[in-house]
Amino acid sequence: MKRVFLPILLILSLSVVFAAPKIIISNVAVSDSSIHAGDSGSVSFIIQNTGDLSFNSIGVTLTSQLVLADTHFSFDDFNVGDTRFITTTYKALNNTPSGSYSISLTVNYDSGDTHYGNSAGAIVTVIPVNYLVVDGFTSSLVIDDITKFYINVTNQGSDTLDNVLLNLVLPDGFIPTTGSQFYFNEIRVGETVTVSTDIYIEKNIKPDAFQFSLEKSAKDFSGTDMLNVVVRGVPELAFSGISLDPQIPLSGTAQTISVQVENVGSGKAYNVVAQLFLNESAIGRKVEYLGSLDREDLSSAIFDLQLNSEASMSGNIIVSYIDDLGVTRQINQDINFDVLPAQGNNTILYVVIGGVLLIGYVIYRVIAKKKR
Could you tell me the pTM of the whole model? Predict the structure, then answer.
């Protein structure tokens, strides 16, 4: 009997020994083996039960210094010959330093009191990203004036930038009076630098939207940003003439005062109003609305008055207007003139004088005739 059972026991023991668990990991693949900081990709694995034992459950763990969308998977009833496909995404943050990063997958399972594990992985290389970003600049400039123009530039990449050159390119008529190129030995990650220059805009430039170019270059990096700016003009009104009609004001008569106003500035003037402030004895229209005056426009305010007394007139003319920002501006001009007595008040005197002269002439003629 012993000779019969010994071979049987040996066969059974060998079958237990050779009934081994075995889960393999294969077909490891990444969509992008090289990415820039801020970019992402996908990674996939296949796990397969190639052993002789089935499992009620298995666990799969993923680890990496990159950001993974999933870090754990579990599967129930993982039988002999079963296959599972695993995929997830990975991402390098904007501030991830350049270098090589592993994505590891580990399968954990137990057989009796024994714990098993099997691992595999992939390598993803993060390439340096040189993001030199313009994150602020002066967006409004004034024609026929000097504007301090600022630009803020930030290194939002993953590595320090060396030998940085910024070159500001301007349209015709825009003059950088304090330079247009700026150099830095280095700009560290996250560092913001500010450059500035004084820009004069020639008076012949019309108010409009313009684009400046900022050319950026450094070691292993180059790029160009377009800066959208608004150029505005500032109106400036000036008196170009004041006239009286008639030129010799007389009391009790009509009087016209003409005021010429010219826009000698670089922008449009809105709601232009001329007001005359004069003695109360001057009666008439003393407010004139001139509307809007574009650059180089000329307009006249006409004040029709009645001068009711002999006096020395004094006062001023105020012209108020509004610029494109809603700011009220004004100019003023003093005005002074004398009002003389009207000729109609001396008519009798003139008649008497004329009569005396006439009588004198007649007497002169009679005497002269008798002498002959």
Answer: 0.55
